[in-house]
Hints:
mainly alpha
Amino acid sequence: MKSKRISIRETIKQHIINNKKEYIIVALIFIIGIFLGVLFVNNMKEDQQSNMNDYINNFINKIKSMDDIDNIAILKTSIKQNLLLMLEIWFLGTTVIRSTNSFWNCII
């Protein structure tokens, strides 16, 4: 079992090393998003800030008051609600990324 853990760790380490550029780009986008979020929140008007605080506090209180959370039901609901979006993203992704040679071969 220990050799399998070492193997998984080495695989993850090698993957990070091989895709260092992508990890740096994603980390930079994440940091920029946090920075812009802080700027927007700090520049909000007082009534907008109070509305946001109320929303966050209500959400936290609802989570605290839940005794038993059914993870499977939440997952099913989320998949049902986002199924159309997932299909659109999949379809657009498969139609945009293709070789132009194979595209022209199908037409000719």
